[in-house]
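Question (not urgent): is this output format expected?
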Amino acid sequence: MAKTQSTQEQTLTQVRTYLNTLKLRKMEKALDEELSYGARENLPVSKILERLLAIEADALIERRIERKIKDSRLPERKLLSDFDFAFQKGIDQHQIMDLASLSFVERKQGLILAGSSGTGKSHIAKALLLIGCTKLYRCRYTTAANMLKDLLASLADGTLEQKLKLYTRPDILLIDEVGFDRLEQESARNASLFFKVIDQRYCQASTLLTTNIDFKALGDYLGDPVITTAIVDRMVHHSVIINIQGPSWRKNESKKLNASSKNKNTKTAQAA
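Got this back:
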């Protein structure tokens, strides 16, 4: 009996060594607990092994998702569950939740979210990009201004083709804040570079755009109305377009904060 127990302990020690060598940390950590559970429930060895492998596989997927999120350059993790659809009645919640399935990504369609500042365009787009990361798509976030600044700089050092790949290769590219502010460098090349990105992704991968300007104003923003026409043609042809008509959530929150502050000050003055 003692010899059998000693042999089992030696075997377990060897198993732990193998798990450590293979860097299967989660399996190694869960081994004793799963063996005890298996003994209590009288599970076959194959079932215990399946449970241990599932633990390691889940941990691996989690690490991959975190890597995808990090590589995407998402500045913040937005969730659709946190979006106030009750406040923003100009948005069809069912349509947004349907987009969350990312079937449009499988079809290599684009998505354009247009509307005034504060209406929730970026929140929705960032949430969809985050979902893309959790489904292990190659994702990337950028603002229009930062992308064009990056590409213009690459013209100077001869790395344009290399830099373009950062924006053309992802399965999902989110170009946020198109038209939000004046471009740092006003150049006719802005439209040409923007066109290169859109054209190479056209019907090949999904591009998400958020903008607070209409397509007519986009020509002035990019500095070349002729090239912008070609950009808009590609953007519109194979994209879902959502125009959000509604109040600014940020302005509403600011009003509530100011009202709360005034009430607090009034109560303080009355108490004094």
